[in-house]
Design brief:
The protein has 254 residues and is mainly beta. It has one domain. The protein has strands spanning 2-11, 15-37, 43-56, 59-71, 76-98, 101-114, 117-123, 126-129, 132-154, 157-170, 173-179, 182-209, 212-223, 226-231, 236-253.
């Protein structure tokens, strides 16, 4: 709620201002490569590559700015919620067979980036509530990656190579605050809550040959959460019970 000119809002009962986003990405990529060679040369080679990139970058805001609000009996609730879910599956299979020489290579990779901003605030406003004032920003992120590669080579001379990588980056920003405002209420709650993250990264590799085989599987997880709440500059606050700087973060890693 924003007004470029002075605006007054009066309500006998409660005022609820909410912004909610639920973003979901489910991605699946597969690559299969097969080569067979017989006869005089008897040489076979195959390569399979599977790539997946997934990104959620949202801004969710719920706010009161540049307005005067008065509730006679009810509450004022400002609530912003972000739910971001990404599940990515990537698999590559390569197989080759040759009488003399056979070579195969399989590679699979998936990247997940969740970079969200969730804001709930009162700024440059006058709010008089006959009930309570609640300013809350909530965010939850889930990133799951399953990556696999398989490479098989059969021949008098065989070589099989494979690799799988999973990179997950979760960087949520959650802010709840009151700034440059006049506030009067029975109870005031300002809360930023980050339930971040639920993360799972699984990489597998299978490489078989009648000669040389090599493989590597890697996973990398980066978590950078910024959770802030508070009552900032030039705020006149009158309340029976003020919880003005309540922030919470729960980390879950599996």
């Amino acid at each position: 709620m924003d007004a470029s000119t002075e605006t007054e809002i009066s309500a006998k009962e409660s005022i609820n201002i909410s912004a909610v986003d639920n973003s979901t990405i489910k991605a699946k990529t597969n690559a299969v490569s097969v080569a067979v060679a017989f006869g005089f040369t008897g040489i076979a080679a195959s390569v399979g590559v599977s790539l997946a990139e997934n990104q959620i970058s949202n801004t969710v805001e719920s706010f009161v700015e540049n307005v005067n609000i008065h509730t006679t009996d009810g509450d004022l609730t400002i609530f912003a919620l972000e739910n971001a879910y990404v599940r990515s599956y990537s698999e590559a299979v390569a197989g080759s067979a040759g009488i003399i020489f056979a070579s195969s290579g399989g590679g699979a990779s998936t990247d997940i980036l969740i970079n969200t901003t969730t804001n709930a605030y009162i700024n440059d406003a006058t709010v008089i509530s006959g009930g309570d004032i609640s300013v809350q920003a909530w965010s939850k992120s889930i990133g799951i990656a399953d990556v696999g590669s398989t490479s098989i080579s059969l021949g008098i001379i065989g070589a099989a190579f494979g690799g799988s990588t999973a990179d997950i980056t979760i960087k949520p920003t959650i802010n709840a605050y009151i700034d440059a405002s006049n506030i009067s209420a029975n109870n005031v709650l300002v809360k930023a809550y980050g339930n971040q993250p639920i993360v799972k990264a699984e990489t597998t590799g299978l490489n078989l040959s009648t000669g040389l085989s090599a493989g590597k599987s890697d996973s990398d997880v980066i978590i950078e959460a910024d959770v802030k709440s508070g009552v900032y500059h030039h705020v006149n606050l009158l309340a029976e019970n003020s919880q003005s700087a309540h922030k919470m973060m729960i980390n879950q890693l599996s």
